[in-house]
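Retro notes (design track)

What went well: tokenization of the new backbones is finally stable.
What didn't: we kept losing track of which sequence belonged to which structure.
Fix going forward: every design gets posted as structure first, then sequence, in one message. First example under the new rule, 114 residues:
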């Protein structure tokens, strides 16, 4: 497939989708908002297993979310991997599964696994 810059992982049959991309973006945006309140930092602490105080520091916030909250294997996608969230299709299955919780809870699931 000759793919212009506008192509996405959903165009290349690796398991991505616009709904997945939207859920990932929404989760990251919500995390950015949660950094700003004590209750939000406590929620992040519970979901991601880091101390709430960790999320008070701008440097820690940048470290945590700067390159994405979880690992997204765009270049090294392995369709044969067996672990939870180890490839684009498995990440997107989690990120589009509302039974896991909201988009932040889904990012936590991708980050920490089962």
């Amino acid at each position: 497939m000759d793919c212009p810059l506008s192509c996405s992982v959903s165009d290349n049959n690796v398991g991505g989708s616009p709904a997945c991309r939207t859920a990932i973006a929404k989760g990251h945006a919500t995390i950015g908002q949660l950094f700003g309140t004590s209750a939000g930092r406590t929620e992040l602490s519970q979901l991601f297993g880091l101390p709430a105080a960790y999320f008070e520091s701008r440097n820690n916030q940048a470290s945590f979310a700067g390159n994405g909250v979880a690992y997204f294997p765009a270049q090294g996608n392995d369709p044969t991997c067996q672990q939870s969230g180890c490839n684009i299709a498995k990440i997107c299955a989690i990120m589009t599964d509302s039974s896991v919780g909201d988009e932040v809870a889904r990012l936590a699931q991708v980050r920490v696994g089962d």
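Added context from the reviewer: Confidence is low (pLDDT under 50) at residues 1-7.
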